Amino acid sequence: MKLLPTLALVTALLLLGCYSTPTSVLGTDAPLITTSKNFTMKEGWQESFKLISGDSTDVHTVVASHILSNAATLRIDSKPVTLAIGSTHSVSLNGKTVFLTLESITDNYARFTISLTPQGGQPSQPGGVQLLQNGAACSNNSACLSNHCGNGYCCASGLCCISNSSCSVGECNMTTYSCFTRTALSNGVPCNSNADCQSNHCNNSYCCASGKCCLSNSNCASGETCNSSYSCIPTQPVYTALAAEQKANSTADGALMGRFSSIFETARQCSGGSSTYKQCVPLVSVREEKVSSSTFRVIYSYSFTGTGCCATTDVLVITTELTTNTATPQWIDTTITSSSADSMNSSLGSNCVAALPYIACKTS
After folding, report:
1. Quick one: 274 and 294 in the same domain?
2. Are residues 334 and 273 in the same domain?
3. Cβ-contact 212, 234 below 8 angstroms
4. Coil vs helix vs strand at 196
5. Does 10 map to a domain?
6. Which residues pair with 233 in a beta bridge?
7. Are 114 and 160 in a shared domain?
8. Are residues 139 and 228 in the same domain?
9. Are 161 and 77 part of one and the same domain?
């Protein structure tokens, strides 16, 4: 009978937005870990998994509590574990020891492994003592998770250190805790300080010539792009001819051309009107010419279907500058007005057959 109150509590938390539903509700579909399992989770996500403990199978939960760019805090059955990328911690769950290894963090997704033995097959020390992380003081290789104790400290390889004074040659890499000889890094290469880079500029953990450095767009803020020089720059908008035409049509002159286009269409549809006149009622066509990445010339032209009608005429050119959202009109061959549109529209409404010859380019 304890299941009903538990389900009621979960339902209430879901309604309040305070609980992230686990992939395996109550662990019914949770995977059984016999060797290891990879997880990829965002902050706030929760997963379930099973472990065999003696003669029983227990269900456990893992929650991604907090994810940074280079570390993550996970909660295993409410036990918090903070991991740096590449580090491993052991956790005891009902007498069963599991090992958590943070593999990577990409776009706020933490990828980690839960295994029954440390990654790489390194056993824990006798008595279940946790293996030491890189940078920790050690006396032998077996004390280190990396299985390498050098110069009195744990690290992956070589001469280990915790400061520059620990290195007889070179400097101490405070990320790997290994001594190294500094060489100038190219743009786009991860760095710790300006002195690491050929450009003498280290920013956002990468080398670049100036500004905010990056390796890909994911290292830049919203509205920024990582360019070929590994610097974040404002994203260049993409301007289109369609946007230019829409801007031109929204102006008073563009709207007037649109109105004349509608009047001409009405004249061509005049019931009982002469077909000779109808074919010489102009069509208003619109085309765009690209001047630059953001500047377009929108051209409104008269054209005709009849071979004996007036030649095609460019009537109006509206130059649009989309970066400033401005439009500049220029009447080329003639100027049409709202009053002439009113007269045409009124004439068509009262007697389209009589008005048609005066609207057509050819009147005989």
Report:
1. yes
2. yes
3. no
4. helix
5. no
6. 225
7. no
8. no
9. no
Range of the domain at 303: 241-359
Domain limit, last residue, from 236, 258, 275: 236
Asked if residue 202 is part of any domain, the answer here is: yes
Residue in this structure with the two tokens 């994203």, named with its chain if needed: 235
Q: Are residues 307 and 349 in the same domain?
A: yes
Are residues 51 and 31 in contact, defined by beta-carbon separation less than 8 angstroms? no
Compute CA 107 distance to the chain's CA centroid, rounded to the nearest angstrom. 9
Euclidean distance between CA atoms 285 and 341, whole angstroms: 18
Specify the number of domains making up the chain.
4
Considering only CA atoms, which of 242, 258, 248 is closest in space to residue 328? 248
Neighbours of 262 (CB within 10 A): 11
The pTM (predicted TM-score) of the whole model is 0.40
* Angle, alpha carbons 338-339-343 (nearest 5°): 115
Can you give the pLDDT of all 364 residues of the chain as single tens digits? 444 454 444 444 444 444 444 443 444 688 999 888 999 999 999 999 999 877 888 899 999 988 887 778 899 998 888 777 887 888 888 878 888 888 899 888 999 999 988 765 444 443 445 678 888 888 888 888 888 999 999 998 889 998 888 898 888 888 888 888 767 889 999 988 888 888 889 999 999 999 999 999 999 998 899 999 999 998 888 899 999 999 999 999 999 999 999 999 999 899 888 888 888 888 888 999 999 989 999 999 887 665 567 666 778 999 999 999 999 999 987 778 899 899 999 999 999 999 998 888 754 3
Show the tokens assigned to 214.
Answer: 């990056």
Instruction: Specify the 3-state DSSP secondary structure of 94.
Output: coil
Same-domain status, 160 and 117: no
Cα-Cα end-to-end distance for the chain? 97
Q: Say yes or no: 266 and 355 in one domain.
A: yes
Instruction: Specify if 94 maps to a domain.
Output: yes
Which pair of tokens denotes residue 86? 């590449």
Is residue 248 in some structural domain?
A: yes
> Under the phi-then-psi rule, with left for phi > 0, alpha for psi from -120 to 50, and beta for the rest, what region is 170?
left
